[in-house]
Amino acid sequence: MKAARWHKAKDIRVEDVAEPAPGPGQVKIKVKWTGICGSDLHEYLAGPIFVPVDAPHPVSGDVAPIIMGHEFSGEVAELGQGVTRLAVGDRVVVEPILACGECDSCRHGKYNTCDKLGFHGLSGGGGGFSAYTVVGEQWAHKMPEGLSFEQGALVEPAAVALHSIRVSSLKAGGTAVVFGAGPIGLLIVESLRIAGASAIHVVELSAERGAKALELGATTIINPANEDAVARIRALTPGGVDVAYEVTGVPAVLQQCIDATRYDGETVIVSIWEKEASFQPNTVVLKERSMKGTIAYRDVFPAVMQLMTQGWYAADKLVTKRIQIDDIVDEGFEALVREKTQIKILVQAPD
Question: Which of the residues 68, 121, 247, 270 has the least number of beta carbons within 10 Å of its own beta carbon?
């Protein structure tokens, strides 16, 4: 079968690989649509980050080259021995977590902070940029009636966004700023609306992405190339916002996030970083601010899909391009690098 495999940074190849078979407790999925994620782009431009290269991943047992793609939907094609929750023909989205199930985090149900955390489609085990893939049945979630496969491919990034709101200190009526209006930043804007934020400021360089943020519910767009973003936020929300969400991965932005919050405010770091970032600790200490990191999601996929059935996270507002797997490098990854008008690019699985 065809699959897009990561070999090294700037080297993703569409190749013929063996079709997988499900083992005990696993299901084989015929992939339908897969989104290109910001994490995929980081791996393409500056990896490895999650891709195992020097030693096999402790959960998947794989080492590069690995099949990519972790935002995907599909249909159950075959059941492994002992599978009881799913049936052939079920329409599913995959929660692409690789967790050991044995560390302290896993034993306390916080599997997304597993000591050996990895992701299906980033850390081995198969991936969505292929015709078929195999996952444990616990990671495949049935899609509600009426949800399209294209919509299903957005469940994973929407789960990242919704989880970031859930773990933050934001309360209904609170104020927020989102630094970065890429796909996750835009989904955070929608999630903030769901959570009842009274003001949602967005800091974004791209006029097109800023306009999309307004369409999705942002109250203010600030272009940091034209004005001091922190000063504008503090003028709009005296003292600063309750919570700032960092979704750029740009080192200089971290301090801006902190400075944009009020006393006792919170900065939530959502980005995956390619390099270190520094900040002045006194800006946290003297205002009793806090900082929090968030990774992926846990126990949130069903809620995301229910919100989608109510009209939230609509694919027709977020998907800007649909391509075939043979075009994944030039029309997918490279398009995201050169075209800031792109938001979410979906890849149709090969037959």
Answer: 270
How many residues are given for the chain? 351
Alpha-helical regions (H) of 93-241: 104-107, 149-152, 155-167, 183-195, 207-215, 229-236
- The span from the CA of 118 to the CA of 59, in Å, is 8
Cis peptide before 251 (omega within 30 of 0): no
Cβ–Cβ contacts within 10 Å for residue 18, how many? 7
pLDDT at site 341 = 86
pLDDT value at 118 more than 90: yes
With cut-offs at 50, 70 and 90, classify the pLDDT of residue 258: very high
CA–CA gap between residue 128 and residue 96 (Å, rounded):
10
Q: What are phi and psi of 289, to 5 degrees?
A: -80, 170
261 vs 175: CA distance, rounded Å: 9
Q: Which CATH class is domain 169-293?
A: alpha beta
Measured between alpha carbons, how far apart are the two ends of the chain, in Å? 8
What class is the 2-156+297-348 domain? alpha beta
Do the bridges between strand 241-246 and strand 261-269 make them parallel or antiparallel, or are there none, so unpaired? parallel
DSSP-assigned states of every residue in 248-290: S--HHHHHHHHHTEEEEEEEEE----SS-----THHHHTTT-E
State the chain's mean pLDDT as an integer.
Answer: 97
pLDDT tens column, 142-188: 999 999 999 999 999 999 999 999 999 999 999 999 999 999 999 99
Domain positions in the chain are 2-156+297-348, 169-293
According to the model, what pLDDT value does residue 286 have?
A: 98
**Is pLDDT at 351 greater than 90 in this prediction?**
no
